[in-house]
Amino acid sequence: MSPLLRIGLWVVVVLTAISPLRSADAAAESGFEGQWTGEQANSDQPAPTAAILIFTQGAGALTGILRMDADELPLFDVKESGTSLSFTLVIPGSPYVSVHYAGARAGDEIRLVSSEEGHGIFTMTAHRDGQTQTASLQPVIPSAALAPPPIGDTASALPRVLEGRWAAQQASPGSAAPIEAALVFTGNRGTMHVGADDWPLFDVKETGTSIAFTLVIPGAPYVTIHYSGVLTGDGLELASLDEGQGIFTLTARRAGSMEAPLASTLAPSLVPALPGRNEPPVALLTPPPPPPEAFPAPPRALPAVPMVPTPSASSSREVAPNNLAQTPPMGWASREKLGTDIDDDVIRQAAEGLDEAGLRTAGYVTVEIDDGWQGMRDAKGALRGNEKFPDMKALGDYIHSKGLKFGLQTSAVAKSCNGFEGSLGHEAQDAETFASWGVDYLIYDMCGADGIYGTRAEQRAAFEKMAAALRASGREIALAISQNGAFDVAQWGAKTGANLWRTGRDLEPDWQSITEAGFGQNGKEAFAGPGHWNDPGLLQTGNGAMTPDEYRTQLNLWAVLAAPFMLGNDVRIMTRETVSALTNAEVIAIDQDPLGRQGKRVSQNGATEVWARPLADGSTAAAFFNRGDQSAAVAVSWQQLGIDGPRHVRDLWWHQNLSTANQRYVVFLTPHTSLLVRMSP
Question: Is 44 known to be catalytic?
Answer without folding.
Answer: no
